[in-house]
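Memo to structure team: turn this sequence into structure tokens by end of day. - J.P.
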Amino acid sequence: MGKTMTSVERALAVLAAFRADDTSLSLAELAARTSFYKSTILRLARSLQNAHFLVRLESGRYQLGSAVVRLGEICKRGTTLDGLIMPVLRDLMARTGESATLYVRKGEHRFCLRRVDSQRTLRDHIREGDLIPLTIGAPGRVFLHFDSGVSHPMRRGAVPMAIRTSAALPLPIVTRGEYDPELAAIACGVFGPEDELLGVVSLSGPATRFRKREAQKMGDILLEACRGLTARLGGDLAHYAARKPGVVS
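Reply from structure team:
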């Protein structure tokens, strides 16, 4: 194929020219965004209209068609966080040796939806189905920062001012001794296509295994995993841009 684009690639480029805030695009706008000749776009648009991927309005502008919506719904049902998470949790546990957990929000609590336990004798004992207040631990801090629907305040002094006031919460974050004096956790968010926080993935275990150097290494592994999940779910990777794991005492 070389550098020559096929008709399929050109057609996909036309569809990809639409952005989240676009209701419709003119022929000139499509040409500007794709760098294709208008005659090429007109030819591609006819084929896309016939297949219901594009709709041409009376004004001459173009909208995405019902076929795109249908495929989007299929993708949304087939590519869910719950459907993708178990291989990721198993890999996180294998690479770090620590328990890996997916939490989702349930009211003022975080709900343990999926869990892969550490194979080490000494570990924490969270179970699938457990409810933990959002005000305790690293996963709760991620929920409280990104989920504006959370109304319950964190306990006095629990959150640094930077977390309360800045949108640039470092991900992942580490806490020690909040859920249990002898335990620590590292947490990072996973985001969906509508910029929503879908869940929080965490690594947890004895605080003695989460000292600064170990936490930095595990944080890098966790960040890589959550970025990969967010990318597969169509979320915005800007949540992770230019950030390094932050440690909260």
